[in-house]
Amino acid sequence: MLEVRGLTAGYGRVRVVWDVDLTVGEREIVALIGPNGAGKTTLLRALSGVLPAASGTAMLADRPLTGRSIEDIAGLGVAHVPEGRRLFPGLTVRQNLLLGAWRHRTAEIDRVLELFPQLAPRLNQLAGSLSGGEQQMCAIARGLMSRPRLMMIDELSLGLAPIIVDEIVMRLPSIAAGGTAVLLVEQDVDTALSLASRAYVLETGRIVLQGPAADLLADSRVQESYLGIPPQP
Ligand SMILES: Nc1ncnc2c1ncn2[C@@H]1O[C@H](COP(=O)(O)OP(=O)(O)OP(=O)(O)O)[C@@H](O)[C@H]1O
């Protein structure tokens, strides 16, 4: 459904991601992993239109994303949950959610509350006063308000306790099954690969490994570099 071909992007004249090919199928969860500074966030920004692509193409359900505005890309069904959540802290949870429904579907609130019932009693609370985990739930719920075909989540687990991360990631399969495929950028490689069906490893701006997540979990390069498992003799 998402088909990225030869995508190169960066900041001004500085290229950060090079010649990336990547796909996400309908209702699929795909992980994008790699070290700090590899270009994962930059790639997501290029897909959601925050940055222009220098070359290459990205298509969502056969419609081009590259060359379009952030609004058009959102309208085509791409939601971006950025690193650090980026909620409006001075607005309530309800107001933040309604901002995610930017074109339609204010009635979606009930549906996202089914996924994240913890938010229901907090609808009238300021988003800035939520716990980190609740803020991440609110950011994901906001992204779901427009019923996107693809949700890109950048560093879901950042700054959250493992038990809270587990609570949030256990919702991702239902989100995908409900028709929103997920492209997950995640430092917690074990969690990401346990959840995803396929994964890509990005290093210094290039995809260096890809395949079924189970294969990458068993790959000695992934084990040594990302899972802290010492090389086997
Ligand atoms: N606004 C910017 N202007 C110029 N260079 C930037 C900008 N944002 C990021 N970069 C550079 O692009 C490179 C890739 O950064 P990016 O944030 O995409 O990596 P990342 O894989 O998401 O890393 P992290 O896991 O640390 O967030 C880095 O060298 C970074 O310094």
Bound small molecules, by name, code or SMILES, are: adenosine-5'-triphosphate
CATH architecture of the largest domain: 3-Layer(aba) Sandwich
Q: How would you classify the helix and strand content by structural class?
A: alpha/beta
Count the E strands: 10
Helical segment count: 10
**Terminus-to-terminus distance:** 41 Å
Biggest sheet details? 6 strands, mixed
Q: How many domains in all?
A: 2
Q: What would the average pLDDT be, to the nearest integer?
A: 92
Biggest sheet: strand arrangement: 6-7-8-3-9-10
- Share of helix, binned: 25-40%
CATH topology of the largest domain: Rossmann fold
Based on Cα principal axes, name the global outline: globular
Could you walk me through the main structural features you see in this protein, from its secondary elements to its overall organization?
GO terms for molecular function: ATP binding. Belongs to the ABC transporter superfamily. Helix 3 packs parallel to helix 5. The protein has 10 helices and 10 strands. The strands form 2 sheets. It has a 6-stranded mixed beta sheet, sandwiched between helices. It is globular and about 55 Å long. The chain has helices spanning 40-48, 70-76, 93-100, 109-115, 132-144, 162-169, 172-177, 189-195, 213-217, 220-226; strands at 2-11, 14-24, 29-33, 53-60, 63-64, 78-81, 150-154, 181-185, 198-203, 206-212. It folds into 2 domains: 1-77 and 149-233, Rossmann fold, CATH 3.40.50; 85-147, no CATH class. With 233 residues, the chain is an alpha/beta fold. Helices cover 33% and strands 27% of the residues. The structure holds adenosine-5'-triphosphate.
